[in-house]
Write a structure and sequence with these properties.
InterPro entries: HTH_MarR-typ, MarR/SlyA-like, WH-like_DNA-bd_sf, WH_DNA-bd_sf. About 45% of the residues lie in helices and about 15% in strands. The chain is α+β, with helices and mostly antiparallel strands. The chain has a domain at about 1-110: Winged helix-like DNA-binding domain superfamily/Winged helix DNA-binding domain (Arc Repressor Mutant, subunit A), CATH 1.10.10.10. The strands form 3 sheets. It has a 3-stranded antiparallel β-sheet, with no helix packed on it. A two-stranded antiparallel sheet has the order 1-2. Strands 3-7 form a two-stranded antiparallel sheet. Bound molecules: iron/sulfur cluster. Iron/sulfur cluster binds near residues 42, 162 and 164.
Length: about 180
C-alpha cells in the first residue's frame, strides 16, 4: 500500500516538476515565485529562498534575477536589517500566479470535502515531519505549528510573538510560510 501511495504522489508531481518552461517559467522559477508570494517578511531573502529550493545561494539569486527581469519580483531594502535586501512579488507577479501550473492540483484538492482535506493536510504534515527528522533538514511551514511562536491574550487582545526573531507578528503573519520554522516536538 505504501508503494501505491508513493506512485500516486509521484504521478501528481508533473504539475510542479517538468522539463522546459510553462507560461515562460521553469519549474524552479514557478517554485520560487510561489514561495515569495506566500513567505513571511523574514523569509523573502535570497538565503531563505535558496534553503526552500534546496539550491545554492548563487543559483537562487539567478532564479530571483530571472523573475526580476520579467517584472514579477523586485528587490527592496529590508525593513528588518538595512544591510539586507528582500525579494518582493510585484502586482504583475501576483497576477501571473493565476497561470501557475500547480493550480490544476490545487483545484483537485479544493474539490475534496472539508474533512478529507483536513485529514490529507494532517497526514502529509506528519509524513513531512518524519522526513525532516530522518533527513535532518528544515522545511518551510507556518507559525501556528512552530516552537518559536508565543501567543498571549484572547479575542481582540490576542498577541503573537516570534521568540527566534524577537518580533511581534500580526495574525496574518502567522499564516505565512517561514523558512526558519521549527516544528514542536
Ligand atoms: S514563529 Fe517560527 S515560523 Fe513564525 S516567524 Fe518565528 S521562526 Fe518563523
Amino acid at each position: 500500500m505504501a508503494i501505491e501511495i508513493l506512485q500516486l504522489l509521484v504521478q501528481s508531481a508533473d504539475t510542479w516538476l517538468f522539463e522546459g518552461n510553462l507560461s515562460g517559467l521553469s519549474d524552479r522559477e514557478w517554485m520560487a515565485l510561489r514561495f515569495l508570494a506566500g513567505a513571511n517578511r523574514f523569509s523573502r531573502t535570497p538565503t531563505a529562498l535558496a534553503s526552500f529550493l534546496g539550491a545554492t545561494r548563487s543559483a537562487a539569486s539567478q532564479i530571483a534575477a530571472a523573475l526580476q527581469n520579467k517584472g514579477l519580483v523586485v528587490r527592496k531594502p529590508s525593513a528588518e536589517d538595512k544591510r539586507s535586501i528582500v525579494l518582493c512579488i510585484t502586482g504583475e507577479g501576483e497576477k501571473f500566479l493565476e497561470r501557475d501550473p500547480i493550480n490544476l492540483l490545487r483545484d483537485q484538492v479544493e474539490a475534496l470535502e472539508a474533512g478529507e482535506r483536513s485529514r490529507l493536510h494532517d497526514t502529509l504534515g506528519r509524513v513531512l515531519t518524519g522526513l525532516d527528522v530522518a533527513k535532518r533538514r528544515h522545511r518551510a511551514d507556518v507559525c501556528s505549528r512552530c516552537m518559536f511562536l508565543v501567543e498571549s491574550g484572547e479575542g481582540k487582545d490576542r498577541h503573537f510573538k516570534c521568540r527566534l526573531f524577537r518580533k511581534s507578528l500580526t495574525p496574518k503573519d502567522t499564516t505565512l510560510l517561514c523558512a526558519y520554522f521549527e516544528g514542536r516536538s
